[in-house]
Protein backbone atom coordinates (compact mmCIF):
# COMPACT_ATOMS: atom_id res chain seq x y z
CA UNK A 1 0.00 0.00 0.00
CA UNK A 2 1.06 3.54 -0.74
CA UNK A 3 1.21 6.50 1.61
CA UNK A 4 0.62 9.60 -0.51
CA UNK A 5 1.50 12.91 1.14
CA UNK A 6 1.53 16.48 -0.09
CA UNK A 7 1.30 19.98 1.33
CA UNK A 8 0.33 23.50 0.36
CA UNK A 9 1.27 26.76 2.07
CA UNK A 10 -1.50 29.02 3.42
CA UNK A 11 0.12 32.04 1.80
CA UNK A 12 -2.96 33.16 -0.12
CA UNK A 13 -5.65 31.80 -2.39
CA UNK A 14 -4.24 29.05 -4.65
CA UNK A 15 -3.67 30.02 -8.26
CA UNK A 16 -3.81 28.17 -11.57
CA UNK A 17 -0.30 26.79 -10.99
CA UNK A 18 -1.27 25.23 -7.65
CA UNK A 19 -4.50 24.01 -9.18
CA UNK A 20 -3.08 22.25 -12.23
CA UNK A 21 0.35 21.54 -10.73
CA UNK A 22 -0.97 19.97 -7.53
CA UNK A 23 -4.64 20.06 -6.54
CA UNK A 24 -6.16 18.48 -9.66
CA UNK A 25 -3.63 15.71 -9.43
CA UNK A 26 -4.43 15.09 -5.74
CA UNK A 27 -8.11 14.67 -6.57
CA UNK A 28 -7.22 12.28 -9.38
CA UNK A 29 -4.99 10.23 -7.09
CA UNK A 30 -7.74 10.12 -4.51
CA UNK A 31 -10.14 8.70 -7.11
CA UNK A 32 -7.64 6.08 -8.32
CA UNK A 33 -6.21 5.07 -4.92
CA UNK A 34 -6.63 1.52 -3.71
CA UNK A 35 -8.51 0.75 -0.49
CA UNK A 36 -5.19 0.21 1.39
CA UNK A 37 -3.57 3.42 0.17
CA UNK A 38 -3.44 6.32 2.60
CA UNK A 39 -3.68 9.92 1.42
CA UNK A 40 -2.67 12.95 3.49
CA UNK A 41 -2.95 16.60 2.45
CA UNK A 42 -1.51 19.20 4.76
CA UNK A 43 -1.84 22.97 5.02
CA UNK A 44 1.74 23.82 5.93
CA UNK A 45 1.52 26.94 8.12
CA UNK A 46 5.05 26.67 9.54
CA UNK A 47 6.46 26.91 6.03
CA UNK A 48 4.51 30.12 5.46
CA UNK A 49 6.43 31.79 8.31
CA UNK A 50 9.66 31.72 6.31
CA UNK A 51 8.37 34.97 4.80
CA UNK A 52 6.80 37.78 6.87
CA UNK A 53 3.07 37.15 7.41
CA UNK A 54 0.30 39.24 8.89
CA UNK A 55 -1.10 37.01 11.70
CA UNK A 56 -4.72 37.87 10.96
CA UNK A 57 -4.33 37.21 7.25
CA UNK A 58 -2.46 33.96 7.93
CA UNK A 59 -5.25 32.73 10.21
CA UNK A 60 -7.84 33.47 7.50
CA UNK A 61 -5.68 31.88 4.80
CA UNK A 62 -5.29 28.68 6.84
CA UNK A 63 -9.04 28.25 7.07
CA UNK A 64 -9.56 29.27 3.43
CA UNK A 65 -7.08 26.61 2.38
CA UNK A 66 -9.09 23.88 4.10
CA UNK A 67 -12.20 25.21 2.29
CA UNK A 68 -10.34 25.17 -1.01
CA UNK A 69 -9.08 21.63 -0.59
CA UNK A 70 -12.68 20.55 -0.02
CA UNK A 71 -13.96 22.77 -2.85
CA UNK A 72 -11.69 21.16 -5.45
CA UNK A 73 -12.82 17.69 -4.37
CA UNK A 74 -10.53 16.39 -1.61
CA UNK A 75 -12.84 14.20 0.44
CA UNK A 76 -12.24 14.12 4.22
CA UNK A 77 -13.71 10.62 4.37
CA UNK A 78 -11.03 9.38 2.00
CA UNK A 79 -8.07 11.68 2.67
CA UNK A 80 -6.60 13.12 5.85
CA UNK A 81 -6.86 16.92 5.57
CA UNK A 82 -4.98 18.70 8.34
CA UNK A 83 -2.90 21.63 9.50
CA UNK A 84 0.81 20.85 9.78
CA UNK A 85 1.00 22.98 12.92
CA UNK A 86 -1.51 20.73 14.68
CA UNK A 87 1.00 17.88 14.59
CA UNK A 88 4.03 18.67 16.79
CA UNK A 89 5.83 15.52 15.63
CA UNK A 90 6.85 17.33 12.42
CA UNK A 91 9.07 19.79 14.32
CA UNK A 92 10.64 17.12 16.52
CA UNK A 93 11.46 14.98 13.51
CA UNK A 94 12.73 18.02 11.66
CA UNK A 95 15.32 18.61 14.39
CA UNK A 96 16.52 15.02 14.32
CA UNK A 97 16.74 14.98 10.51
CA UNK A 98 18.45 18.38 10.39
CA UNK A 99 21.33 16.87 12.35
CA UNK A 100 21.92 14.44 9.46
CA UNK A 101 22.32 16.95 6.63
CA UNK A 102 25.07 19.48 5.99
CA UNK A 103 24.64 23.22 5.84
CA UNK A 104 26.37 23.16 2.45
CA UNK A 105 23.74 20.86 1.02
CA UNK A 106 20.99 23.26 2.09
CA UNK A 107 22.93 26.21 0.70
CA UNK A 108 22.92 24.51 -2.69
CA UNK A 109 19.12 24.38 -2.90
CA UNK A 110 17.88 26.62 -5.72
CA UNK A 111 15.23 28.27 -3.52
CA UNK A 112 17.93 29.31 -1.04
CA UNK A 113 20.19 30.51 -3.84
CA UNK A 114 17.43 32.64 -5.30
CA UNK A 115 16.73 34.19 -1.89
CA UNK A 116 20.43 34.86 -1.53
CA UNK A 117 20.45 36.54 -4.95
CA UNK A 118 17.63 38.84 -3.81
CA UNK A 119 19.52 39.69 -0.62
CA UNK A 120 22.73 40.51 -2.50
CA UNK A 121 23.48 44.12 -3.21
CA UNK A 122 23.22 44.65 -6.98
CA UNK A 123 26.28 46.93 -7.02
CA UNK A 124 28.43 45.12 -4.51
CA UNK A 125 28.13 41.32 -4.65
CA UNK A 126 29.95 40.86 -1.36
CA UNK A 127 27.34 42.90 0.50
CA UNK A 128 24.41 40.80 1.70
CA UNK A 129 21.26 42.07 3.43
CA UNK A 130 21.31 39.49 6.21
CA UNK A 131 18.02 40.68 7.72
CA UNK A 132 15.96 38.98 4.97
CA UNK A 133 17.78 35.65 5.28
CA UNK A 134 16.17 33.97 8.30
CA UNK A 135 17.25 30.48 9.38
CA UNK A 136 13.86 29.04 8.37
CA UNK A 137 14.51 29.93 4.73
CA UNK A 138 17.62 27.75 4.83
CA UNK A 139 16.21 24.84 6.81
CA UNK A 140 12.60 24.59 5.62
CA UNK A 141 13.49 21.80 3.15
CA UNK A 142 14.39 19.73 6.25
CA UNK A 143 10.98 20.49 7.76
CA UNK A 144 9.45 19.46 4.43
CA UNK A 145 11.35 16.17 4.62
CA UNK A 146 9.98 15.71 8.15
CA UNK A 147 6.43 16.46 6.91
CA UNK A 148 6.83 13.66 4.40
CA UNK A 149 8.69 11.14 6.54
CA UNK A 150 6.53 11.55 9.66
CA UNK A 151 3.97 9.43 7.79
CA UNK A 152 6.59 7.14 6.20
CA UNK A 153 5.22 8.46 2.91
CA UNK A 154 6.02 6.54 -0.23
CA UNK A 155 4.73 9.03 -2.82
CA UNK A 156 4.74 12.84 -2.96
CA UNK A 157 2.60 14.43 -5.69
CA UNK A 158 3.92 17.95 -6.32
CA UNK A 159 4.67 20.36 -9.15
CA UNK A 160 8.01 20.04 -10.94
CA UNK A 161 9.38 23.03 -8.98
CA UNK A 162 9.60 20.68 -5.99
CA UNK A 163 11.91 18.06 -7.52
CA UNK A 164 15.03 19.18 -5.66
CA UNK A 165 13.19 19.18 -2.34
CA UNK A 166 11.96 15.62 -2.80
CA UNK A 167 15.47 14.50 -3.75
CA UNK A 168 16.67 16.04 -0.49
CA UNK A 169 13.94 14.22 1.45
CA UNK A 170 15.10 10.94 -0.11
CA UNK A 171 18.72 11.65 0.82
CA UNK A 172 17.70 12.53 4.37
CA UNK A 173 15.65 9.33 4.66
CA UNK A 174 18.64 7.38 3.40
CA UNK A 175 20.98 9.15 5.84
CA UNK A 176 18.65 8.28 8.72
CA UNK A 177 18.47 4.64 7.64
CA UNK A 178 22.26 4.40 7.40
CA UNK A 179 22.79 6.08 10.76
CA UNK A 180 20.13 4.36 12.80
CA UNK A 181 18.52 1.46 10.99
CA UNK A 182 21.09 -0.45 8.96
CA UNK A 183 19.41 -3.86 8.98
CA UNK A 184 15.88 -2.83 8.19
CA UNK A 185 15.22 0.23 6.04
CA UNK A 186 13.14 2.31 8.46
CA UNK A 187 12.07 5.01 5.99
CA UNK A 188 11.26 4.04 2.44
CA UNK A 189 12.64 6.64 0.04
CA UNK A 190 9.65 8.73 -1.05
CA UNK A 191 8.99 8.93 -4.80
CA UNK A 192 8.34 12.19 -6.56
CA UNK A 193 5.08 12.08 -8.53
CA UNK A 194 5.15 15.08 -10.84
CA UNK A 195 1.97 16.26 -12.40
CA UNK A 196 1.55 15.78 -16.13
CA UNK A 197 0.69 19.48 -16.47
CA UNK A 198 3.70 21.75 -17.10
CA UNK A 199 4.74 24.47 -14.69
CA UNK A 200 2.48 27.53 -15.03
CA UNK A 201 4.36 30.80 -15.30
CA UNK A 202 3.62 34.33 -14.11
CA UNK A 203 1.27 36.17 -16.48
CA UNK A 204 3.31 39.36 -16.25
CA UNK A 205 6.84 37.91 -16.05
CA UNK A 206 7.02 34.53 -17.79
CA UNK A 207 10.58 34.02 -16.59
CA UNK A 208 9.16 33.26 -13.11
CA UNK A 209 6.59 30.69 -12.01
CA UNK A 210 3.09 31.78 -11.05
CA UNK A 211 3.21 32.20 -7.26
CA UNK A 212 0.86 33.06 -4.40
CA UNK A 213 3.36 35.34 -2.76
CA UNK A 214 4.60 37.19 -5.88
CA UNK A 215 4.27 40.94 -5.40
CA UNK A 216 2.24 41.70 -8.54
CA UNK A 217 -1.35 40.41 -8.18
CA UNK A 218 -1.81 40.69 -11.97
CA UNK A 219 0.76 37.90 -12.34
CA UNK A 220 -1.68 35.21 -11.26
CA UNK A 221 -5.24 33.94 -11.54
CA UNK A 222 -6.62 32.76 -8.22
CA UNK A 223 -9.22 30.02 -7.91
CA UNK A 224 -11.75 32.48 -6.52
CA UNK A 225 -11.44 35.08 -9.28
CA UNK A 226 -14.64 36.10 -11.05
CA UNK A 227 -15.14 35.75 -14.79
CA UNK A 228 -14.45 39.51 -15.13
CA UNK A 229 -11.15 39.24 -13.20
CA UNK A 230 -10.08 36.25 -15.29
CA UNK A 231 -10.82 38.21 -18.48
CA UNK A 232 -8.78 41.24 -17.36
CA UNK A 233 -5.77 39.21 -16.27
CA UNK A 234 -5.61 37.07 -19.38
CA UNK A 235 -6.05 40.15 -21.54
CA UNK A 236 -3.13 41.77 -19.73
CA UNK A 237 -0.88 38.72 -19.96
CA UNK A 238 2.56 39.32 -21.49
CA UNK A 239 2.94 37.79 -24.97
CA UNK A 240 5.07 38.79 -27.95
CA UNK A 241 4.64 40.50 -31.33
CA UNK A 242 5.44 37.44 -33.45
CA UNK A 243 2.68 36.60 -35.93
CA UNK A 244 0.73 33.38 -35.52
CA UNK A 245 0.74 31.03 -32.56
CA UNK A 246 3.44 28.45 -31.92
CA UNK A 247 4.48 26.55 -28.80
CA UNK A 248 8.06 27.56 -28.11
CA UNK A 249 8.72 27.96 -24.36
CA UNK A 250 12.25 29.32 -24.90
CA UNK A 251 11.66 31.92 -27.61
CA UNK A 252 8.00 32.66 -26.78
CA UNK A 253 7.55 32.10 -23.01
CA UNK A 254 4.45 34.27 -22.59
CA UNK A 255 2.55 32.82 -25.55
CA UNK A 256 3.62 29.30 -24.61
CA UNK A 257 2.42 29.85 -21.04
CA UNK A 258 -1.06 30.69 -22.35
CA UNK A 259 -0.95 27.48 -24.39
CA UNK A 260 0.12 25.54 -21.28
CA UNK A 261 -2.84 26.97 -19.38
CA UNK A 262 -5.24 26.17 -22.23
CA UNK A 263 -3.86 22.64 -22.45
CA UNK A 264 -4.23 22.12 -18.70
CA UNK A 265 -7.88 23.23 -18.91
CA UNK A 266 -8.83 21.14 -21.93
CA UNK A 267 -6.65 18.07 -21.33
CA UNK A 268 -4.89 18.43 -24.72
CA UNK A 269 -1.15 18.88 -25.20
CA UNK A 270 0.19 22.43 -25.54
CA UNK A 271 1.44 21.52 -29.03
CA UNK A 272 -2.05 20.41 -30.10
CA UNK A 273 -3.49 23.69 -28.80
CA UNK A 274 -0.84 25.61 -30.74
CA UNK A 275 -1.74 23.74 -33.92
CA UNK A 276 -5.37 24.80 -33.57
CA UNK A 277 -4.33 28.45 -33.30
CA UNK A 278 -1.42 28.35 -35.78
CA UNK A 279 -2.87 30.89 -38.19
CA UNK A 280 -4.74 32.95 -35.60
CA UNK A 281 -3.63 35.82 -33.38
CA UNK A 282 -3.05 36.44 -29.67
CA UNK A 283 -6.53 37.95 -29.33
CA UNK A 284 -8.15 34.69 -30.41
CA UNK A 285 -5.85 32.65 -28.17
CA UNK A 286 -6.55 34.87 -25.16
CA UNK A 287 -10.30 34.63 -25.73
CA UNK A 288 -10.09 30.83 -25.79
CA UNK A 289 -7.88 30.72 -22.67
CA UNK A 290 -10.26 33.04 -20.82
CA UNK A 291 -13.23 30.84 -21.67
CA UNK A 292 -11.42 27.61 -20.74
CA UNK A 293 -10.17 28.99 -17.40
CA UNK A 294 -13.64 30.27 -16.49
CA UNK A 295 -15.13 26.85 -17.32
CA UNK A 296 -12.50 25.11 -15.14
CA UNK A 297 -12.88 27.43 -12.15
CA UNK A 298 -16.64 28.04 -12.05
CA UNK A 299 -17.48 24.97 -9.97
CA UNK A 300 -14.65 25.12 -7.36
CA UNK A 301 -15.30 28.86 -6.97
CA UNK A 302 -18.98 28.28 -6.23
CA UNK A 303 -18.21 25.48 -3.78
CA UNK A 304 -15.53 27.57 -2.04
CA UNK A 305 -18.00 30.44 -1.50
CA UNK A 306 -20.49 28.01 0.02
CA UNK A 307 -17.90 26.35 2.30
CA UNK A 308 -16.36 29.61 3.45
CA UNK A 309 -19.59 30.38 5.29
CA UNK A 310 -19.34 27.05 7.16
CA UNK A 311 -16.51 27.90 9.57
CA UNK A 312 -17.55 25.33 12.22
CA UNK A 313 -17.58 22.57 9.64
CA UNK A 314 -14.13 23.62 8.37
CA UNK A 315 -12.73 23.61 11.92
CA UNK A 316 -14.24 20.15 12.48
CA UNK A 317 -12.65 18.77 9.32
CA UNK A 318 -9.24 20.13 10.39
CA UNK A 319 -9.64 18.80 13.94
CA UNK A 320 -10.60 15.31 12.75
CA UNK A 321 -7.73 15.35 10.27
CA UNK A 322 -5.31 16.34 13.05
CA UNK A 323 -6.36 13.39 15.20
CA UNK A 324 -5.72 10.94 12.37
CA UNK A 325 -2.45 12.59 11.35
CA UNK A 326 -1.17 12.71 14.94
CA UNK A 327 -1.86 9.04 15.41
CA UNK A 328 0.32 8.14 12.43
CA UNK A 329 3.08 10.69 13.06
CA UNK A 330 3.30 9.90 16.78
CA UNK A 331 3.73 6.20 15.98
CA UNK A 332 6.65 7.05 13.68
CA UNK A 333 8.21 9.31 16.30
CA UNK A 334 7.99 6.65 19.00
CA UNK A 335 10.09 4.38 16.77
CA UNK A 336 12.44 7.21 15.78
CA UNK A 337 13.09 8.03 19.44
CA UNK A 338 13.89 4.39 20.17
CA UNK A 339 16.25 4.12 17.22
CA UNK A 340 18.07 7.33 18.07
CA UNK A 341 18.42 6.58 21.77
CA UNK A 342 16.00 9.28 22.84
CA UNK A 343 13.22 7.01 24.09
P1 LIG B 1 4.33 30.60 -2.51
O1 LIG B 1 4.22 31.46 -3.72
O2 LIG B 1 3.56 31.12 -1.36
O3 LIG B 1 5.74 30.21 -2.20
P2 LIG B 1 3.47 28.56 -4.20
O4 LIG B 1 2.43 29.24 -5.00
O5 LIG B 1 4.78 28.36 -4.80
O6 LIG B 1 3.60 29.26 -2.82
P3 LIG B 1 3.17 26.12 -2.62
O7 LIG B 1 2.11 26.25 -1.59
O8 LIG B 1 4.59 26.24 -2.19
O9 LIG B 1 2.85 27.16 -3.79
O10 LIG B 1 3.02 24.77 -3.41
C1 LIG B 1 1.85 23.99 -3.52
C2 LIG B 1 1.95 23.08 -4.71
O11 LIG B 1 1.73 23.83 -5.91
C3 LIG B 1 3.30 22.39 -4.88
O12 LIG B 1 3.08 21.03 -5.22
C4 LIG B 1 3.94 23.11 -6.04
O13 LIG B 1 4.78 22.24 -6.77
C5 LIG B 1 2.74 23.51 -6.86
N1 LIG B 1 2.99 24.73 -7.64
C6 LIG B 1 3.24 25.95 -7.11
N2 LIG B 1 3.38 26.86 -8.09
C7 LIG B 1 3.22 26.20 -9.27
C8 LIG B 1 3.23 26.60 -10.66
N3 LIG B 1 3.43 27.85 -10.98
N4 LIG B 1 3.01 25.65 -11.60
C9 LIG B 1 2.78 24.36 -11.24
N5 LIG B 1 2.75 23.92 -9.97
C10 LIG B 1 2.96 24.82 -8.98
Features:
globular, binds adenosine-5'-triphosphate, single chain, Tyrosyl-Transfer RNA Synthetase, mainly alpha, 13 helices
Structure description:
- The chain is mostly helical and 343 residues long.
- The protein contains 13 helices and five strands.
- It has helices spanning 16-32, 45-48, 55-72, 89-98, 103-107, 110-119, 135-149, 163-180, 227-235, 253-266, 270-276, 282-308, 311-340, and strands at residues 3-8, 38-43, 80-83, 155-158, 191-194.
- Strand 4, helix 8 and strand 5 (191-194) form a beta-alpha-beta unit.
- The mean pLDDT is 95.
- The structure holds adenosine-5'-triphosphate.
- Adenosine-5'-triphosphate is lined by residues 8-9, 11, 17-18, 21-22, 158-159, 161-162, 199-200, 209-213.
pLDDT < 50 stretches: none
Counting DSSP H or I runs of 4 or more residues, the number of helices is 13
Bound molecules: adenosine-5'-triphosphate
Helix content: 40-55%
Amino acid sequence: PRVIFSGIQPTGIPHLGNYFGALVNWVKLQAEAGADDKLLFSVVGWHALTLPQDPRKLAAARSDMIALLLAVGIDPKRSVIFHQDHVQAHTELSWILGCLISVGRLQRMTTWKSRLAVARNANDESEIDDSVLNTGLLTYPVLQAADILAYKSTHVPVGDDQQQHIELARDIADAFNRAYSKKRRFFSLPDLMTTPSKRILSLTDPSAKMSKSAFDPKSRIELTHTAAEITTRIRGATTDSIQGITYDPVARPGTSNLLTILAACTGESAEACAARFASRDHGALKAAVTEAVEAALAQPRKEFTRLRAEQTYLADVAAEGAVKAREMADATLREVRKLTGLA
